[in-house]
Design a protein that fits this description.
Number of domains: 1
Strand content: over 45%
Strand order of the largest sheet: 2-9-8-7-6-5
Structural class: mainly beta
Radius of gyration: 17 Å
Order of helices and strands: EEHEEEEEEEEEEEE
Helix content: under 10%
Number of strands: 14
Distance between the termini: 44 Å
Largest sheet: 6 strands, antiparallel
Number of helices: 1
Amino acid sequence: MTARVLPLTALLITTLATACSCPSLTAMALRNGAYRIDEDIIALTEGEYRHRYMEDSAAERVVTLTDIIEKGDLDGRDGDDAAVILIDEPGGSGTFYHLAVLMRRDDVYENVATEFLGDRILVQSVVIDDMTHGITVHALVRNEGDAMAVPPEVQVVMRYMVVGNSISPMQQSVPTPIGSSR
């Protein structure tokens, strides 16, 4: 399947094989990189992407790079890799959180995979374990069956491994309401 490029200037900073090509893992490079969300390639400018669906419409898609940026070794090559959190607000009621992984390939950093984390959750932190090469995401979610208007208050730990060009979920924690013990 072919990825849609949003906007067309992303072609200038994107390689054919991946959604993102950054010269380094500096905050500036990450805030101006391109990332794949589903089939779309999103080119950020100063950490944000905006796209109006129709010229005279107020509805727009907004994708933001959060301040949650973790660097570490994800492939055992002792190089700097990174895991970042993107928030995708496509113009409806959803606020979708994604984990994006960037790895060093041929002297550039590529967004090799992006994983959907949840709708209207609260990501608290991301940790890369240099020994296991795993990614741990700490977040607050809702109890199953709670309305989306209910603030997320259930702590979860989500664990992932990068396998090839994909993010594989590992065992997830049992949701624990804040203030309770397991």
